[in-house]
Amino acid sequence: MRTVSDFNTELKLKGFNVFQIEEDSNTTRVYSRKEFYKICLTTGKSNVHYADRSFVQEGTVLFFGNPHIPYSWETISRTYVGYTILFSEDFLFPDKRSESLQQSPLFKIDGTPILEISETQREFLNGIFLKMIEEQKSDYQYKDELIRNYIQLILHEALKLQPSENFHRNQNASERLTSVFLELLERQFPIETPQRPLQFKTANDFAQNLAVHVNYLNRSVKEVTGKSTTIHITERIIAEAKAMLQHTDWNISEIAFALGFEYPTYFNNFFKKITGTNPKSIRKSMV
To answer: How far apart are CA 237 and CA 196, in angstroms?
Structure first.
């Protein structure tokens, strides 16, 4: 019997996985596989929370999930069917010469992640997903390239379609941006392995990922929370450092690297400046 671990390992090794969605009961799913993009073709009633927006959908929709943007999916109808493909940007663009998917109107934070699909369009897209599933099981030498072409075909077909207007969002732009920043900050934790260090460490990192100017991000976060972007990031890194010192057997160098510090000395200085003590003392006090 195939386990979730088998599925996750295959996904990481190949960079993609395509599968059929079976009937589903009422459930809320939070997509947390941070390194994979997602395309879903689904039929049923659902409520999708994507960054600062919520979409109530009934019928067939095409959904585009960006691994850098927090979202969750609440299934409302008892019968819920369709197809899903997960893929990494490295899989889709192995030569790394193409524009980032994060700039696509389908995946960017202010883009159009949900498209309403007609019956004719559903039948056409169903056919593409079935072909991908078939190729995934095959031994064809160039199946990865063929699946890339199928994904690109879905993306191009989607760009021709009208975005869903059945959504609502908060009225205050600063509140929307701050909410997404805080969710994106929190989604980086907990850190599960020293081999996958912290991705976003500065206000500039977050601003670039959210496609806004860093001054606008800083102003919005300060206006809404009373704290600067940097303070939020610093406090969360310190909290994670203390948790790692207490609950892992990683050495100081591994913790420093996992938190995005190039050298342990930089981490020690940062930690002492904020807490007044060094990491080794914290670890000893917790023994």
So the answer is: 15
